[in-house]
Protein backbone atom coordinates (compact mmCIF):
# COMPACT_ATOMS: atom_id res chain seq x y z
CA UNK A 1 0.00 0.00 0.00
CA UNK A 2 2.80 2.41 0.87
CA UNK A 3 4.67 1.72 -2.36
CA UNK A 4 1.51 2.33 -4.40
CA UNK A 5 1.01 5.71 -2.77
CA UNK A 6 4.64 6.73 -3.30
CA UNK A 7 4.58 5.57 -6.93
CA UNK A 8 1.43 7.59 -7.55
CA UNK A 9 3.11 10.63 -6.01
CA UNK A 10 5.91 10.44 -8.57
CA UNK A 11 3.41 10.08 -11.40
CA UNK A 12 1.73 13.35 -10.43
CA UNK A 13 4.80 15.25 -11.59
CA UNK A 14 5.33 13.00 -14.62
CA UNK A 15 1.74 13.52 -15.79
CA UNK A 16 2.00 17.27 -15.24
CA UNK A 17 5.17 17.41 -17.35
CA UNK A 18 3.27 15.96 -20.25
CA UNK A 19 0.78 18.81 -19.85
CA UNK A 20 3.60 21.38 -19.67
CA UNK A 21 2.98 22.38 -16.03
CA UNK A 22 5.78 20.68 -14.05
CA UNK A 23 8.61 23.04 -14.91
CA UNK A 24 10.73 25.11 -12.55
CA UNK A 25 7.77 27.36 -11.68
CA UNK A 26 4.00 27.32 -11.12
CA UNK A 27 1.42 30.08 -11.47
CA UNK A 28 -1.28 31.51 -9.22
CA UNK A 29 -4.32 29.36 -8.60
CA UNK A 30 -2.36 26.09 -8.51
CA UNK A 31 -3.77 23.50 -6.08
CA UNK A 32 -2.56 19.98 -5.31
CA UNK A 33 -4.03 17.52 -2.77
CA UNK A 34 -2.06 14.58 -1.38
CA UNK A 35 -3.69 11.73 0.51
CA UNK A 36 -2.42 9.03 2.85
CA UNK A 37 -4.07 5.71 3.77
CA UNK A 38 -7.25 6.30 5.80
CA UNK A 39 -5.96 3.80 8.35
CA UNK A 40 -2.78 5.20 9.89
CA UNK A 41 0.29 3.48 8.40
CA UNK A 42 3.59 3.69 10.34
CA UNK A 43 6.56 4.36 8.07
CA UNK A 44 4.45 5.91 5.33
CA UNK A 45 6.12 8.57 3.14
CA UNK A 46 4.26 10.20 0.26
CA UNK A 47 5.74 12.79 -2.11
CA UNK A 48 4.18 14.79 -4.92
CA UNK A 49 6.90 16.57 -6.90
CA UNK A 50 5.57 19.86 -8.25
CA UNK A 51 8.68 21.62 -9.63
CA UNK A 52 12.14 20.68 -10.83
CA UNK A 53 15.18 22.63 -11.99
CA UNK A 54 16.81 21.96 -15.32
CA UNK A 55 20.31 20.65 -14.67
CA UNK A 56 23.06 21.51 -17.14
CA UNK A 57 25.02 18.41 -16.21
CA UNK A 58 23.95 14.80 -16.06
CA UNK A 59 26.71 14.24 -13.53
CA UNK A 60 24.77 16.04 -10.80
CA UNK A 61 21.14 15.70 -9.67
CA UNK A 62 18.54 18.46 -9.98
CA UNK A 63 16.58 20.29 -7.29
CA UNK A 64 12.94 19.33 -6.80
CA UNK A 65 10.14 20.85 -4.74
CA UNK A 66 7.56 18.46 -3.33
CA UNK A 67 4.45 18.28 -1.20
CA UNK A 68 5.15 15.54 1.34
CA UNK A 69 3.29 13.50 3.95
CA UNK A 70 5.15 11.38 6.49
CA UNK A 71 3.97 9.24 9.37
CA UNK A 72 4.68 10.63 12.84
CA UNK A 73 4.37 9.47 16.42
CA UNK A 74 1.93 12.25 17.27
CA UNK A 75 -1.56 10.80 17.87
CA UNK A 76 -1.43 8.64 14.76
CA UNK A 77 -1.25 11.62 12.42
CA UNK A 78 0.88 12.52 9.41
CA UNK A 79 3.32 15.40 9.01
CA UNK A 80 2.55 17.67 6.06
CA UNK A 81 5.18 20.00 4.58
CA UNK A 82 6.71 21.54 1.48
CA UNK A 83 10.21 20.22 0.97
CA UNK A 84 13.13 20.85 -1.38
CA UNK A 85 15.30 17.91 -2.44
CA UNK A 86 18.75 17.87 -4.00
CA UNK A 87 18.64 14.48 -5.63
CA UNK A 88 17.50 12.26 -2.75
CA UNK A 89 18.73 14.63 -0.02
CA UNK A 90 16.21 16.86 1.71
CA UNK A 91 17.74 20.35 1.96
CA UNK A 92 14.78 22.44 3.13
CA UNK A 93 11.41 21.88 4.80
CA UNK A 94 8.56 24.17 5.78
CA UNK A 95 8.02 21.90 8.79
CA UNK A 96 11.51 22.23 10.27
CA UNK A 97 10.32 24.47 13.12
CA UNK A 98 6.52 24.47 12.81
CA UNK A 99 4.98 21.02 12.52
CA UNK A 100 1.69 20.63 10.68
CA UNK A 101 -0.21 17.42 11.47
CA UNK A 102 -3.06 16.07 9.36
CA UNK A 103 -5.30 13.02 9.57
CA UNK A 104 -5.05 11.70 6.01
CA UNK A 105 -5.02 14.61 3.54
CA UNK A 106 -2.75 17.60 2.84
CA UNK A 107 -3.48 20.34 0.30
CA UNK A 108 -0.92 22.66 -1.32
CA UNK A 109 -2.26 25.93 -2.71
CA UNK A 110 -0.83 29.04 -4.37
CA UNK A 111 -3.76 31.43 -4.03
CA UNK A 112 -4.83 34.03 -6.58
CA UNK A 113 -3.66 36.81 -4.23
CA UNK A 114 -0.15 35.30 -3.95
CA UNK A 115 -0.17 33.37 -0.67
CA UNK A 116 1.47 29.93 -0.56
CA UNK A 117 -0.45 27.68 1.84
CA UNK A 118 -0.77 24.20 3.26
CA UNK A 119 -4.29 23.21 4.31
CA UNK A 120 -5.96 20.30 6.02
CA UNK A 121 -8.95 18.43 4.61
CA UNK A 122 -11.28 20.79 6.53
CA UNK A 123 -9.69 23.73 4.62
CA UNK A 124 -8.00 25.00 7.77
CA UNK A 125 -4.61 26.61 7.00
CA UNK A 126 -1.69 25.01 8.86
CA UNK A 127 1.20 26.88 7.20
CA UNK A 128 1.48 29.93 4.95
CA UNK A 129 4.09 32.21 3.40
CA UNK A 130 2.18 35.35 4.44
CA UNK A 131 2.59 37.05 1.06
CA UNK A 132 -1.01 37.93 0.21
CA UNK A 133 -1.42 41.23 -1.65
CA UNK A 134 2.28 41.66 -2.51
CA UNK A 135 1.91 41.32 -6.25
CA UNK A 136 3.10 37.72 -6.44
CA UNK A 137 3.02 36.26 -9.95
CA UNK A 138 4.53 32.79 -9.55
CA UNK A 139 6.44 30.29 -7.40
CA UNK A 140 9.83 29.18 -8.71
CA UNK A 141 12.62 26.84 -7.70
CA UNK A 142 15.93 28.38 -8.77
CA UNK A 143 19.10 26.64 -9.93
CA UNK A 144 20.58 27.18 -6.43
CA UNK A 145 17.73 25.27 -4.76
CA UNK A 146 16.19 28.49 -3.44
CA UNK A 147 12.38 28.34 -3.40
CA UNK A 148 11.11 31.85 -4.24
CA UNK A 149 7.90 33.80 -4.76
CA UNK A 150 8.36 36.42 -7.50
CA UNK A 151 6.36 39.46 -8.62
CA UNK A 152 5.86 40.72 -12.19
CA UNK A 153 9.30 42.43 -12.10
CA UNK A 154 10.99 39.17 -11.01
CA UNK A 155 11.65 40.67 -7.59
CA UNK A 156 11.85 38.15 -4.75
CA UNK A 157 9.08 38.67 -2.20
CA UNK A 158 9.69 35.49 -0.22
CA UNK A 159 12.48 32.89 -0.30
CA UNK A 160 13.36 29.69 1.52
CA UNK A 161 16.97 30.93 1.92
CA UNK A 162 15.64 33.38 4.52
CA UNK A 163 14.38 30.48 6.63
CA UNK A 164 17.42 28.18 7.06
CA UNK A 165 16.94 24.71 8.50
CA UNK A 166 19.79 22.21 9.00
CA UNK A 167 21.32 22.65 5.52
CA UNK A 168 23.05 25.59 3.82
CA UNK A 169 23.23 25.39 0.01
CA UNK A 170 25.93 26.71 -2.28
CA UNK A 171 25.08 30.36 -2.98
CA UNK A 172 23.19 30.78 0.29
CA UNK A 173 24.10 33.47 2.83
CA UNK A 174 23.88 33.42 6.63
CA UNK A 175 24.03 36.76 8.44
CA UNK A 176 25.06 37.42 12.03
CA UNK A 177 22.48 36.09 14.50
CA UNK A 178 21.22 33.54 11.94
CA UNK A 179 21.68 29.84 12.54
CA UNK A 180 21.19 26.31 11.30
CA UNK A 181 19.53 23.88 13.71
CA UNK A 182 19.35 20.10 13.89
CA UNK A 183 17.00 18.16 16.17
CA UNK A 184 17.91 14.61 17.27
CA UNK A 185 14.95 12.26 17.28
CA UNK A 186 13.22 11.70 20.63
CA UNK A 187 15.39 14.19 22.49
CA UNK A 188 14.90 17.56 24.17
CA UNK A 189 18.36 18.77 23.15
CA UNK A 190 19.35 20.13 19.74
CA UNK A 191 22.42 21.34 17.85
CA UNK A 192 22.96 24.75 16.27
CA UNK A 193 25.51 26.29 13.90
CA UNK A 194 25.62 30.02 14.62
CA UNK A 195 27.17 33.14 13.13
CA UNK A 196 28.52 35.43 15.86
CA UNK A 197 30.44 38.68 15.58
CA UNK A 198 33.76 37.14 16.61
CA UNK A 199 33.41 33.56 15.31
CA UNK A 200 31.27 30.80 13.89
CA UNK A 201 30.49 27.93 16.25
CA UNK A 202 28.61 24.70 16.91
CA UNK A 203 26.46 24.57 20.05
CA UNK A 204 24.72 21.93 22.13
CA UNK A 205 21.40 23.31 23.42
CA UNK A 206 19.34 21.90 26.28
CA UNK A 207 16.54 24.00 27.75
CA UNK A 208 18.32 27.19 28.85
CA UNK A 209 21.78 25.60 28.74
CA UNK A 210 24.02 26.29 25.76
CA UNK A 211 27.59 25.07 25.28
CA UNK A 212 29.84 25.28 22.23
CA UNK A 213 32.00 22.34 21.16
CA UNK A 214 33.63 23.67 17.96
CA UNK A 215 34.66 27.19 16.95
CA UNK A 216 36.34 28.93 14.02
CA UNK A 217 37.65 32.48 14.36
CA UNK A 218 38.80 34.66 11.44
CA UNK A 219 42.37 35.93 11.22
CA UNK A 220 43.46 38.86 13.40
CA UNK A 221 40.22 38.70 15.40
CA UNK A 222 38.28 40.54 12.69
CA UNK A 223 34.54 41.10 13.02
CA UNK A 224 32.19 38.71 11.23
CA UNK A 225 29.19 40.05 9.30
CA UNK A 226 27.99 37.12 7.19
CA UNK A 227 28.89 33.76 5.63
CA UNK A 228 28.41 32.55 2.09
CA UNK A 229 28.82 29.01 0.85
CA UNK A 230 30.45 28.74 -2.57
CA UNK A 231 32.00 26.07 -4.80
CA UNK A 232 35.37 26.56 -3.08
CA UNK A 233 34.05 26.23 0.45
CA UNK A 234 32.62 28.37 3.25
CA UNK A 235 33.64 32.05 3.06
CA UNK A 236 33.50 34.49 5.99
CA UNK A 237 33.03 38.23 5.35
CA UNK A 238 33.37 41.40 7.45
CA UNK A 239 31.18 44.52 7.56
CA UNK A 240 32.74 45.78 4.31
CA UNK A 241 32.04 42.50 2.49
CA UNK A 242 35.75 41.64 2.48
CA UNK A 243 36.57 37.97 2.85
CA UNK A 244 38.36 37.42 6.17
CA UNK A 245 38.36 33.64 6.33
CA UNK A 246 37.59 30.47 4.43
CA UNK A 247 37.09 26.81 5.20
CA UNK A 248 38.32 25.61 1.84
CA UNK A 249 36.83 22.55 0.20
CA UNK A 250 36.52 22.43 -3.62
CA UNK A 251 33.23 21.53 -5.32
CA UNK A 252 31.17 22.03 -2.16
CA UNK A 253 27.44 21.75 -2.86
CA UNK A 254 26.00 22.09 0.62
CA UNK A 255 26.79 22.28 4.34
CA UNK A 256 24.80 20.33 6.92
CA UNK A 257 24.58 19.53 10.64
CA UNK A 258 24.05 15.86 11.42
CA UNK A 259 21.12 15.17 13.73
CA UNK A 260 22.87 12.23 15.42
CA UNK A 261 26.37 13.45 16.26
CA UNK A 262 25.91 17.20 15.75
CA UNK A 263 28.94 17.31 13.47
CA UNK A 264 29.21 19.89 10.70
CA UNK A 265 30.09 18.71 7.21
CA UNK A 266 30.76 20.15 3.76
CA UNK A 267 29.37 17.87 1.05
CA UNK A 268 30.19 17.35 -2.62
CA UNK A 269 28.63 15.07 -5.19
CA UNK A 270 30.45 11.90 -6.27
CA UNK A 271 29.18 10.93 -9.76
CA UNK A 272 30.92 7.56 -9.70
CA UNK A 273 29.05 6.66 -6.50
CA UNK A 274 25.86 8.52 -7.34
CA UNK A 275 25.63 10.23 -3.95
CA UNK A 276 26.81 13.14 -1.81
CA UNK A 277 29.71 12.61 0.59
CA UNK A 278 31.30 14.73 3.29
CA UNK A 279 34.69 16.04 2.15
CA UNK A 280 35.19 18.05 5.36
CA UNK A 281 34.04 17.55 8.94
CA UNK A 282 34.44 20.21 11.61
CA UNK A 283 35.12 17.59 14.29
CA UNK A 284 37.44 14.84 13.08
CA UNK A 285 37.96 12.99 16.37
CA UNK A 286 35.03 10.95 17.71
CA UNK A 287 35.78 11.84 21.33
CA UNK A 288 35.58 15.58 20.55
CA UNK A 289 31.84 15.28 19.90
CA UNK A 290 29.47 16.13 22.78
CA UNK A 291 27.47 12.90 22.36
CA UNK A 292 30.27 10.45 21.59
CA UNK A 293 29.00 8.73 24.75
CA UNK A 294 25.77 9.06 26.71
CA UNK A 295 25.47 11.48 29.64
CA UNK A 296 27.83 10.43 32.45
CA UNK A 297 29.91 8.48 29.96
CA UNK A 298 33.61 8.96 29.17
CA UNK A 299 35.11 8.57 25.71
CA UNK A 300 38.43 6.77 26.26
CA UNK A 301 41.63 6.94 24.25
CA UNK A 302 40.59 3.71 22.51
CA UNK A 303 37.34 5.46 21.46
CA UNK A 304 35.14 3.24 23.59
CA UNK A 305 32.72 4.45 26.25
CA UNK A 306 33.32 4.04 29.96
CA UNK A 307 30.62 4.82 32.51
CA UNK A 308 30.84 7.06 35.58
CA UNK A 309 28.80 4.77 37.83
CA UNK A 310 28.48 7.11 40.77
CA UNK A 311 24.74 7.73 40.65
CA UNK A 312 22.43 6.05 43.13
CA UNK A 313 19.77 5.39 40.48
CA UNK A 314 20.65 3.81 37.15
CA UNK A 315 23.83 3.80 35.12
CA UNK A 316 25.01 4.91 31.68
CA UNK A 317 22.57 2.51 30.02
CA UNK A 318 19.64 4.49 31.40
CA UNK A 319 17.56 6.61 29.07
CA UNK A 320 19.42 9.86 28.46
CA UNK A 321 16.29 11.87 29.21
CA UNK A 322 16.39 10.53 32.79
CA UNK A 323 19.85 12.00 33.25
CA UNK A 324 19.00 15.28 31.58
CA UNK A 325 15.74 15.72 33.50
CA UNK A 326 17.44 15.86 36.92
CA UNK A 327 17.38 19.63 37.33
CA UNK A 328 18.73 20.42 40.79
CA UNK A 329 21.56 18.66 42.60
CA UNK A 330 21.85 20.40 45.97
CA UNK A 331 22.79 17.99 48.76
CA UNK A 332 25.66 16.37 46.89
CA UNK A 333 29.41 15.94 47.04
CA UNK A 334 32.15 16.45 44.46
CA UNK A 335 34.56 13.81 43.21
CA UNK A 336 37.52 14.46 40.93
CA UNK A 337 38.10 12.38 37.80
CA UNK A 338 41.79 12.53 37.03
CA UNK A 339 42.87 12.34 33.41
CA UNK A 340 39.61 13.51 31.84
CA UNK A 341 38.07 16.78 30.66
CA UNK A 342 35.02 17.92 28.71
CA UNK A 343 34.83 19.18 25.12
CA UNK A 344 32.07 21.62 26.09
CA UNK A 345 32.87 25.33 26.37
CA UNK A 346 31.12 28.51 27.47
CA UNK A 347 30.17 27.28 30.93
CA UNK A 348 29.94 29.58 33.95
CA UNK A 349 33.53 30.69 34.54
CA UNK A 350 35.33 31.85 37.67
CA UNK A 351 38.93 33.08 37.38
CA UNK A 352 41.79 33.32 39.87
CA UNK A 353 40.42 30.55 42.06
CA UNK A 354 41.96 27.39 43.50
CA UNK A 355 40.80 23.88 42.69
CA UNK A 356 39.29 23.62 46.16
CA UNK A 357 37.35 26.83 45.60
CA UNK A 358 36.16 25.55 42.22
CA UNK A 359 34.88 22.40 43.90
CA UNK A 360 33.07 24.46 46.52
CA UNK A 361 31.46 26.75 43.93
CA UNK A 362 29.96 23.83 42.02
CA UNK A 363 28.92 22.08 45.20
CA UNK A 364 26.93 25.11 46.37
CA UNK A 365 25.30 25.68 42.97
CA UNK A 366 22.32 23.32 42.65
CA UNK A 367 22.35 23.74 38.86
CA UNK A 368 25.99 22.64 38.56
CA UNK A 369 26.67 18.99 37.76
CA UNK A 370 30.32 19.12 36.79
CA UNK A 371 33.28 21.51 36.66
CA UNK A 372 36.62 21.65 34.87
CA UNK A 373 39.68 23.30 36.38
CA UNK A 374 42.88 24.57 34.73
CA UNK A 375 45.91 24.80 37.00
CA UNK A 376 47.89 27.10 34.69
CA UNK A 377 45.03 29.59 34.24
CA UNK A 378 43.55 29.17 37.73
CA UNK A 379 40.22 28.98 35.94
CA UNK A 380 37.06 27.12 36.96
CA UNK A 381 34.26 26.41 34.44
CA UNK A 382 30.98 24.95 35.70
CA UNK A 383 28.44 23.00 33.64
CA UNK A 384 24.82 21.99 34.03
CA UNK A 385 25.37 18.66 32.23
CA UNK A 386 27.95 15.87 32.38
CA UNK A 387 28.48 15.33 28.66
CA UNK A 388 31.34 15.43 26.18
CA UNK A 389 33.72 13.95 28.75
CA UNK A 390 36.87 12.41 27.27
CA UNK A 391 40.16 10.94 28.45
CA UNK A 392 43.30 13.12 28.22
CA UNK A 393 46.93 13.02 29.34
CA UNK A 394 47.12 13.09 33.13
CA UNK A 395 49.93 15.67 33.09
CA UNK A 396 47.85 18.20 31.16
CA UNK A 397 47.13 20.41 34.18
CA UNK A 398 43.39 19.97 33.63
CA UNK A 399 41.01 18.24 36.01
CA UNK A 400 37.32 17.46 35.91
CA UNK A 401 34.93 17.06 38.84
CA UNK A 402 31.40 15.69 38.96
CA UNK A 403 28.69 15.96 41.58
CA UNK A 404 27.52 12.73 43.24
CA UNK A 405 24.86 12.01 45.89
CA UNK A 406 26.05 11.79 49.46
CA UNK A 407 26.57 8.26 50.65
CA UNK A 408 27.30 6.76 47.23
CA UNK A 409 30.44 4.76 47.91
CA UNK A 410 32.16 1.52 47.06
CA UNK A 411 33.90 1.80 50.41
CA UNK A 412 33.97 4.13 53.38
CA UNK A 413 36.93 6.14 52.18
CA UNK A 414 36.52 8.99 49.74
CA UNK A 415 39.94 8.27 48.28
CA UNK A 416 38.74 4.81 47.29
CA UNK A 417 35.75 6.32 45.53
CA UNK A 418 38.09 8.55 43.56
CA UNK A 419 40.34 5.61 42.78
CA UNK A 420 37.35 3.56 41.62
CA UNK A 421 36.10 6.29 39.33
CA UNK A 422 39.57 6.92 37.90
CA UNK A 423 39.94 3.19 37.41
CA UNK A 424 36.89 3.21 35.19
CA UNK A 425 38.46 5.97 33.11
CA UNK A 426 42.00 4.81 32.58
CA UNK A 427 42.20 1.27 33.84
CA UNK A 428 40.38 -0.53 31.06
CA UNK A 429 43.08 -0.29 28.39
CA UNK A 430 45.86 -1.04 30.87
CA UNK A 431 43.95 -4.06 32.16
CA UNK A 432 43.62 -5.45 28.65
CA UNK A 433 47.39 -5.31 28.16
CA UNK A 434 48.05 -6.84 31.58
CA UNK A 435 45.71 -9.75 31.00
CA UNK A 436 47.10 -10.42 27.55
CA UNK A 437 50.63 -10.50 28.92
CA UNK A 438 49.63 -12.85 31.71
CA UNK A 439 47.97 -15.36 29.39
CA UNK A 440 44.35 -14.54 30.17
CA UNK A 441 43.68 -12.43 27.09
CA UNK A 442 41.24 -14.81 25.43
CA UNK A 443 39.23 -15.29 28.61
CA UNK A 444 39.06 -11.55 29.28
CA UNK A 445 37.99 -10.63 25.77
CA UNK A 446 35.17 -13.18 25.82
CA UNK A 447 33.98 -12.00 29.23
CA UNK A 448 34.27 -8.35 28.26
CA UNK A 449 32.18 -8.82 25.12
CA UNK A 450 29.39 -10.23 27.26
CA UNK A 451 29.53 -7.53 29.90
CA UNK A 452 30.35 -4.46 27.85
CA UNK A 453 27.43 -2.13 28.33
CA UNK A 454 28.28 0.56 25.81
CA UNK A 455 29.28 0.08 22.14
CA UNK A 456 32.22 1.93 20.67
CA UNK A 457 31.11 5.33 19.39
CA UNK A 458 31.58 5.95 15.71
CA UNK A 459 31.27 9.02 13.53
CA UNK A 460 28.32 8.46 11.27
CA UNK A 461 27.65 9.56 7.73
CA UNK A 462 24.65 11.85 8.08
CA UNK A 463 24.14 14.41 5.31
CA UNK A 464 21.00 15.89 6.82
CA UNK A 465 18.63 15.48 9.73
CA UNK A 466 16.00 12.87 9.22
From TrEMBL:
Occurrences of domain Apple (ranges): 330-405
Signal sequence bounds: 1-20
Domain named Bulb-type lectin: residues: 41-162
Keyword Iron among UniProt keywords: no
Pfam families according to UniProt: B_lectin (PF01453), PAN_1 (PF00024)
Transmembrane segments: 420-445
Keyword terms: Disulfide bond, Glycoprotein, Membrane, Signal, Transmembrane, Transmembrane helix
Protein name: (rape) hypothetical protein
Organism: Brassica napus
Amino acid sequence: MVMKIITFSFLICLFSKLQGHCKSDINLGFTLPLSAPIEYTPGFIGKAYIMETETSSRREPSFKAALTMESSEYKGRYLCSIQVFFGDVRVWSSGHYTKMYVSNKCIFELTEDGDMRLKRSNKRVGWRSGTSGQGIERLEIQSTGNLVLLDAMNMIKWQSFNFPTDVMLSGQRLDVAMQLTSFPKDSTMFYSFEVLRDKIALFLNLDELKYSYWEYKPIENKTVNFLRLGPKGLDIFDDNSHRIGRIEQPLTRFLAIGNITGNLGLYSYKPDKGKFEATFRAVSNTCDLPVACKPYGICTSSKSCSCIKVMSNGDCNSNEEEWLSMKRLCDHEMVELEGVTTVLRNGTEARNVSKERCEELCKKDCECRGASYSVSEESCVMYGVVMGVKEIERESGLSYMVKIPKGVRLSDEKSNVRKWVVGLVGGIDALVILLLLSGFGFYYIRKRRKSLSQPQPQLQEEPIAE
